[in-house]
User: What shape does this take?
Amino acid sequence: MTLSPAGTLGIDFGTSNSAIAWAGPQGDSRLIPLEGQAVSMPTAVFYNAEDNRTHFGRDAVAQYLAGTEGRLMRSLKSLLGSPLLNETTVVNHQQLSFQDIVATFLAELRERATQALGAAPRRVVMGRPVHFVDDDLARDAQAQQSLLDAARAVGFDEVSFQLEPIAAALDYERRLSRESLVLVVDLGGGTSDFTVVRLGPDRLALPERSADVLATTGVHIGGTDFDQKLSLEQVMPLLGYRHLGPQDREVPSRVFFDLSTWHLIQWLYLPRAISQAQSLRVNYRDTALHERLMKVLKHRDGHRIAHEVEQAKIRCSQLDGATDVDLSDVERGLRAPLDTTHLREHLGSLLARTVACARDCVQAAGLSDGALDAIYLTGGSSALRPFQRALQAEFPGVAMVEGDLFGGVASGLAYGR
Assistant: This one.
């Protein structure tokens, strides 16, 4: 087996899902299956305390949901640029930093690529959002450096970066028959990124494409933010959020914000956090709500609730109708309703800020809406119906094209030069 196949591996390390693709020196990019035939997998790591094995993707989530004793880690990308990245946590009697856990996930992606290619890839183009961190250039640079360090630590010799919306544009370009001005919309789990770019079959072979990128913008809002908001509004009140206590004061809200935020949930399982939550009992008039909260924390059901909220959001969007969040693990028969009105009302502000960022991108490009040939959608969160409606209302008459929501960015990254 050769040590270094000629070509480039593209890695879309996402907040919620990840994908990888390979392109040889002369060939088209192809997505590499990661779990069975699935070409994307959840960015999830589960440390199994029962047999000391490490699980990834759907397998990781399934292990956790089956009640296996262990630690589930999700939304690792959200920690990039944060001081929490270098914090350590005890996993199966080992002290690991979250930087180590990011590297563990990247190492698994590289191993699965090696199995598919028959050789270990050495050159990689990593995707990155327009902004890892909004309005903080130093932290944004640190986030990219942390991802670079992780990629090098797992064996990649040549590491470069490409903006995720530009990668999506390079993938879409191969399907165009004429030159077009396109607004590329990439909504992932943690960020929303926009690019106005000139694309076309005659431009594919150009060695330098920077002049074709007319504008880029981004905002740190994504699918996990939508999940957090829906959880706070529909689920957390069942555990005491906004509950008025004996003094007609609301129960302190910090625990509910953390419990509805994927990458913070694990901290609530620590003994100190359990003790702090227990002390909140005096703030409750209805102590049954506090008992629910404590059951969730002691049974480590926070990730399960977050998963149920995410799935209910997807069902509600796909069905364009009513569903509910299953909380029967907390209490028999307990459910939180979720319908299209909830999506529209609870997510309205977040969606408005996201669409405003798209508008800023078109304005920065100096274009009128009539100059756009298409809006190209990628990233799992771009499938959310309320978002698509808000975007179409902002750009009436511009055709919206739904691309490969989970694999388009990785495919474009593999074309990186």
Remarks:
- The CA atoms of residues 127 and 164 lie 5 Å apart.
- Residues 224-345 form one domain.
- The longest strand covers residues 180-187.
- The first helix runs from residue 57 to 65.
